[in-house]
Write a structure and sequence with these properties.
CATH topology of the largest domain: Rossmann fold
Radius of gyration: 20 Å
CATH superfamily of the largest domain: Nitrogenase molybdenum iron protein domain
CATH class of the largest domain: Alpha Beta
Family: Belongs to the bacterial solute-binding protein 8 family.
Number of helices: 12
Number of domains: 2
Order of helices and strands: EEEEHEHEHEEHEHHEEHEEHEHHEHH
InterPro entries: ABC_Transporter_SBP, ABC_transptr_periplasmic_BD
Keywords: Signal
Largest sheet: 6 strands, parallel
Distance between the termini: 32 Å
Strand content: 15-25%
CATH architecture of the largest domain: 3-Layer(aba) Sandwich
Protein name: ABC transporter substrate-binding protein
Length: about 325
């Protein structure tokens, strides 16, 4: 799934030990002050407020839209398998900002757009194969901001995740608010998200055993799923369930079916995107012989959320509300 995932200007971001903040609220006013942030555990200074940001993938793009930063964007890259975008809260952003590519970003996309910042993530655009990395862009004089959900953690060469996923969402909103001078807007958005989630948590029945939930992204020989550092971890837990792969210290990763059978989830959540439809994924799960005795399959408790609900994005709180309602009414 993450395979869909991320003119040289004098706006190079450099690693530094200190940083200063911007306090301007209007995104159109903050143009000259340098801004220091911590991104993926590194101190980074941006010499100016970016004016031609290029984003990769739907969740990252909608973080910019949710903060009202369409006027700071030069374009986005995104496959066209992310559902109907015409009815989303940020339709105006999609109408206004150029769709650069229906694949992932490339250096050519970025240079053609005259980008002065690339906002992407590891496996959300940034990738070692093909050389599309923050380091490669820095050599072109183009700074980057890395999606916090995707930060590499050093456990393996490619494992990702530094903090609980909702903390990652709030960290990115806070950082973007500081970088673009819309800190009040970011704080208001975070407070609204926290209230939405608290409202869902308050509806969970007291003393009830929490249903076990497995996130199924894709794969038949081996399932691709979510460990404790990707958004489904807290989408599931805040909705009132338990992610059966909580012990996996990664964001998105491949496991074996035997782990699913052993943990016997009460509910399976399907991630809806790509060439294989949610209905096709459901048919596979219900017909796959090794899963026949798994509770979720026996009772046909399979719930569908869209890709953008399940990656770090401003749609996470609404996804928590929908899953919470399903768990309360379906799992007794």
């Amino acid at each position: 799934m993450r395979k869909f995932l991320a003119a040289a200007l004098c706006l190079a971001a450099t690693v530094t030990a200190t940083g200063c903040g911007a306090s301007v609220e209007s995104s159109g006013d903050a143009k000259s002050s340098s801004v220091g942030l911590t991104n993926c555990g590194r101190k980074v200074t941006y010499d100016k407020v970016p004016e031609r940001v290029v984003t990769n993938d739907v969740g990252i793009t909608e973080l910019m839209f949710a903060l009202g930063l369409e006027d700071r964007m030069a374009g986005f890259a995104m496959p066209d398998d992310k559902g109907d975008l015409s009815g989303v809260p940020w339709k105006d952003g999609y109408d206004k900002v150029k769709w650069l590519s229906k694949d992932q970003l490339t250096k050519e996309n970025v240079l053609d757009a005259r980008a002065d910042l690339v906002f992407a993530g590891w496996n959300y655009g940034f990738r070692d194969d093909g050389g599309f990395t923050p380091e490669a862009l820095k050599k072109l004089g183009i700074p980057s901001y890395i999606l916090t959900e995707s930060c590499r953690n050093g456990r393996t060469k490619t494992s990702r995740g530094l903090m609980p996923p909702l903390d990652a969402l709030y960290t990115d909103l806070t950082n973007l608010g500081k970088l673009f001078g819309v800190e009040k807007r970011a704080a208001t958005l975070i407070a609204d998200f926290k209230k939405q989630i608290a409202d869902v948590r308050a509806k969970a029945p007291e003393g009830a055993e929490r249903p076990k939930v497995f996130l199924y992204d894709s794969g038949q020989d081996q399932p691709f799923t979510s460990g404790r550092y990707a958004a489904p971890e807290q989408i599931i837990s805040e909705a009132g369930g338990v992610n059966v792969m909580h012990d996996v210290a990664d964001s998105w990763t491949t496991i074996g079916w035997e782990s699913v059978v052993e943990r016997d989830p009460d509910v399976i959540v399907i991630c809806n995107y790509g060439d294989v439809s949610a209905e096709q994924k459901k048919k596979f799960l219900l017909s796959y012989a090794p899963l026949r005795n798994v509770s979720a399959v026996k009772h046909r408790r399979i719930f569908v959320l869209d890709y953008v609900d399940l990656v770090e994005s401003p749609r996470n709180p609404a996804a928590i509300a929908r899953l919470g309602a399903y768990l309360r009414t379906t799992v007794g």
